[in-house]
Design goal:
The complex is a heterodimer of chains A (about 325) and B (about 240).
Chain A (H helix, E strand, L loop, with lengths): L3 H27 L5 H24 L4 H17 L7 H18 L1 H24 L10 H8 L8 H4 L2 H21 L6 H23 L3 H8 L3 H23 L6 H32 L8 H20 L10
Helix pairs in contact in A: 1-2, 1-3, 2-3, 4-12, 5-9, 5-11, 8-9, 8-11, 8-12, 9-11, 11-12
Chain B lengths: L1 E3 L2 E4 L7 E4 L3 H28 L15 H19 L4 H6 L1 E5 L7 H9 L1 H4 L6 H9 L6 H6 L1 E5 L3 H15 L4 H12 L6 H15 L5 H6 L2 H12 L9
Antiparallel strand pairs in B: 1-2, 2-3, 4-5
Classes of the chains: A mainly alpha (about 325), B mainly alpha (about 240).
């Protein structure tokens, strides 16, 4: 048994080590990288603190000494388990391995989302063709007035708002929609399905409405440069949301929470790539799509090239390492 | 990993478990409110500076790139950017004494921190973080949906504990009192200014009479507040005074 004097002697004997640990911790936290010696010293201090904490918990529980050791032990644990800063290598690894792998895994959900969007668009087209008055459910008064006067709402947009500001507004909105499509997957995937179906419905309804007023070609011309990637990314985000929902309904980990967490982490890099692609879409939609100086052929070329870049990124072909025999 | 009474125990490689004190919805909200004020003030300060520099505050001209865009970036990207830069230790969290850690007590990765922020879109629904707060109340580890997705916890960061540990060690070297008595006196002196005068004098007299049974109770009752504090300090040894103002 420890008596008061033993405890005092123990504290005095170990105090130097604790003080050194506090100082080393402060130094290591402030630097980005540690040398091998510094890392080994930290591990040694971690072991020593573990022994001291076990002793303190036994002989002086609920004391300030134990609380202090708990705090120090936790901080060294956090420091030691710090992940290395990957920087460019992490991004390369994500583009070469992680993102193509997730895309392959999500191939079926992506195609399903594309199908859902297509069917919803057809439903929207049929709805407005059959009941033209329902367009008020999908478009604002301003948009309807423009189209009824024979102009697209996007005409002259570039004269009202500068392209830069337009791009920022559009890309912020697109990123929010895609992120929401992913996050809404938490409602067992139903939220995502609703969002994708609504997007398709609105797209089909808008096309049907402008077609009735002879403006379908103008709308196609407006969206062809940015639309293919934008719609594909929304489908990918939707597929990610569905996968998130599935991870909760049919957990693959030890619990639903673990499965949900693992799924989020697996999809995280893909979502970041989607956000980056949407920035490109926003720039195209702000600078190229509303500009009448760009002919149809150049718009189709831009749209096709950007979609191919997206496809190369998703499949990992753009950054694939060459295998040398 | 197990959790009980707002504490999470994590197994470590040393065999000695790690104990993490979970921050409750109150502390979490407190940290958020501080951060919210900081980002709002920064965004407003930027707008005021732009207005002072005669830059138009509108989306309809290029001036918006200098006036509105940075303010919007500050306001909307404050959490993800600062959390990634500080690895989960925003100014608000620092002031509230909390920090973000992984469920295994490790530092959260950038992906985890970004995921945590992405889910703010759902946690903030329908308004004032109702979904997030409800989840905090319902989960054992007091986490919102973003934390579940990212695999993070908001834990209490007891920064004062290390300083306290080193002070106790120094006091143990300089004083002959038992560790219990040392810690008790140290706590009383630390809280001296925040205690009411009558209460702290009563606590000090009680402590002094136990430490030295020969001390006359009537004599102690005559002593002033400052003298009682000096007597407590004397029990801690010569090193005590500088730490307690």
């Amino acid at each position: 048994m420890f008596d008061g004097e033993d405890i005092r002697r123990w504290i005095m004997a170990r105090a130097g080590s604790w003080r050194a640990s506090v100082n080393n911790l402060a130094a290591l936290r402030s630097q980005r990288q540690a040398t091998v010696d510094e890392a080994l010293n930290a591990v040694e201090a971690y072991r020593g603190l573990a022994r001291d904490l076990a002793t303190a918990r036994r002989v002086v529980p609920n004391s300030r000494t134990t609380a202090g050791l708990e705090s120090l032990y936790r901080q060294i644990h956090t420091l030691i388990s710090r992940r290395p800063r990957g920087g460019l290598e992490t991004i390369q690894s994500a583009l070469r391995l992680d993102i193509p792998k997730v895309t392959r895994e999500l191939r079926v959900p992506i195609l399903s989302m594309a199908l859902l969007m297509g069917v919803s668009a057809l439903a929207g087209w049929w709805l407005i063709t059959t009941f033209p008055t329902l367009i008020g459910m999908f478009a604002s008064e301003d948009m309807i007035d423009h189209v009824e006067q024979g102009h697209l709402w996007t005409e002259g947009l570039i004269n009202v708002v500068p392209s830069s500001m337009l791009s920022i507004g559009i890309l912020a909105n697109n990123i929010t929609v895609s992120v929401l499509a992913f996050c809404a997957g938490i409602f067992l995937g139903l939220g995502t399905l609703y969002l994708i179906a609504m997007n398709g419905l609105m797209l089909g309804a808008a096309f049907a409405f402008v077609h009735q007023h002879g403006l379908a070609r103008a709308l196609f011309e407006f969206i062809i440069a940015h639309g293919p990637v934008e719609l594909s990314v929304i489908c990918i985000a939707g597929a990610s949301g569905v996968a998130l929902g599935e991870s909760i309904i049919r957990p693959t980990g030890s619990s639903r929470r673990d499965s949900f967490q693992a799924c989020s982490h697996r999809i995280g890099p893909l979502l970041l790539l989607c956000a980056a692609l949407l920035i490109g879409c926003g720039l195209i939609e702000g600078f190229i799509s509303p500009d009448p100086r760009f002919p149809m052929a150049s718009r189709i070329t831009i749209g096709a090239c950007y979609w191919l870049i997206m496809w190369s990124l998703l499949t990992g072909r753009l950054f694939a390492k060459r295998i040398v025999d | 990993m197990s959790s009980a009474d707002d504490r999470v125990t994590v197994q470590s490689v040393t065999g000695v478990d790690l104990t993490l004190a979970i921050a409750g919805p109150g502390t979490r909200s407190y940290a958020f409110v501080i951060d919210w004020h900081i980002r709002l003030l920064l965004a407003c300060a930027w707008l005021l500076a732009a207005a002072a520099a005669q830059v138009k505050i509108t989306w309809r001209t290029h001036d918006g790139l200098i006036s509105l865009l940075p303010a919007a970036v500050i306001y909307f990207l404050y959490h993800p950017v600062i959390e990634v830069m500080t690895r989960g230790h925003t100014p608000g969290k620092r002031m509230a004494g909390v920090r973000i850690l992984g469920r295994d007590g490790s530092q959260p990765s950038i992906t985890a921190l970004l995921l945590r922020n992405v889910f703010r879109l759902i946690d903030s629904l329908p308004a004032t973080y109702l979904v997030g707060l409800t989840t905090c109340f319902l989960t054992r580890q007091r986490v919102r949906l973003g934390d579940m997705a990212a695999g993070t916890l908001l834990v209490l960061d007891d920064a004062a504990a290390e300083a306290s540990l080193l002070r106790i060690e120094r006091l143990a070297t300089n004083s002959k009192l038992s560790l219990d008595a040392l810690e008790l006196i140290d706590q009383v002196l630390e809280r001296w200014e925040s205690l009411e005068s009558a209460n702290r004098a009563q606590v000090a007299r009680s402590l002094l009479s136990r430490l030295d049974p020969k001390e006359d109770a009537a004599n102690l009752a005559q002593l002033s507040d400052a003298t009682l504090r000096d007597m407590l300090r004397a029990h801690l040894g010569s090193d005590a005074a500088p730490n307690h103002v």
